[in-house]
Structure formats: C-alpha cells, structure tokens
Amino acid sequence: MSKTLLYGATKIDETNSAYSPAKSLAAFQWKNRVFILFADKENARAARQENQLLADRNALDERDMVVLKVAGKNVRSLFGAADGLDGEAIRRDMEAPEAGEFVAFLLGKDGTVKLKASEPIASGELFAIIDSMPMRAAESVKPDK
C-alpha cells in the first residue's frame, strides 16, 4: 500500500509548485476539503473507497468535505455540491496517473494536497488525518462546528 502524507512531520514548502492550490478546484478553496478519487467505473478499489467514505455522511458534512470521482474526462460528485468541473484539468493539476488507475487525493481547505493514496484509505484514518490539521482543530473549538 502506498500512501504519501503531505501534512504533518514534513513542513510543506509552499513555494514548490507541487504544493500550490489546484486551479481546477479553486471554487472549493477556503470553503471545503476535497477528496478526489481517480478510477474507471469498473475499478473495485474505487468502489470500496466510495462505500467506506459514504458510510459516514455526517462525518463528511462535519468536516466540510466534498467527495469527487474522476473517471476518464467525467467528474461526478459523490458527496457535496460540485458542478461544471473538468476531469482533464483536475487530472492535470493533480498530476494523476492515466485513466483507469486508482489514486486518491485529499486537499485541505487551502487547496493544497495533504494526502495521496494508491490504495483505499479507511474513513477513520482519513478523518484522523483531517482532525489533526490546525485549521480543523480551530474549527472544532468554534461553537457552530
């Protein structure tokens, strides 16, 4: 299993273009965390990832999540509102592999990549990563969250 945690022990160099916000997903910046899964419709790992995440919609909502699935050129929102997105632009911005290969990304509210996984990630593990982020910690002390 290959997971790259881009948040945490290693300080993110925001001057590095690899950590700049994804332009194709700019509409979500500072509003939502975005989980993107790249896979073709027939991909069993993508189906497993979808089922794990969508099993806890309250947790997704609580963390201001949008979940997107990119299959080929198509983008489908699995959770949260998302219209008019370009699958090719997202694939290019995320430097995702060719269509048909599974990969998942978590973008923080700042629009930068926080996690890249080549295998499905358990929802509890994903939520723990999100909950360890400073912005999420600040949100959890606000009375409206």
Outline the low-pLDDT stretches: 7-17
Gyration radius over CA: 14 Å
Helix content: 25-40%
Which structural class do the helices and strands define?
Answer: alpha+beta
Question: How big a fraction of the residues is strand?
Answer: 15-25%
Tell me about the largest β-sheet. 6 strands, mixed
Number of strands: 6
Give average pLDDT, whole number.
84
Shape: globular
Task: Give the terminus-to-terminus CA distance.
Answer: 33 Å
Tally the helices: what do you get?
5
Mind sketching the topology for me?
Blueprint (H helix, E strand, L loop, with lengths): L2 E3 L27 E6 L5 H11 L2 H6 L2 E7 L2 E6 L7 H8 L8 E5 L5 E5 L5 H9 L2 H8 L4
Could you please describe the fold and organization of this structure?
A 6-stranded mixed β-sheet has the order 1-6-5-2-3-4, sandwiched between helices. The N and C termini lie far apart (33 Å). The chain is globular. A hairpin with a 5-residue loop joins strand 5 and strand 6 (113-117). Mean pLDDT is 84; it is low at 7-17. It has 5 helices and 6 strands. The longest helix has 11 residues, at 44-54. Helix content is 29%, strand content 22%. By secondary structure, the chain is an alpha+beta fold.
Short structural description:
This protein has about 140 residues and is an alpha+beta fold. It is about 30% helix and about 20% strand.
Which key phrases capture this entry?
145 residues; alpha+beta; 6-stranded mixed sheet; 6 strands; 22% strand; globular
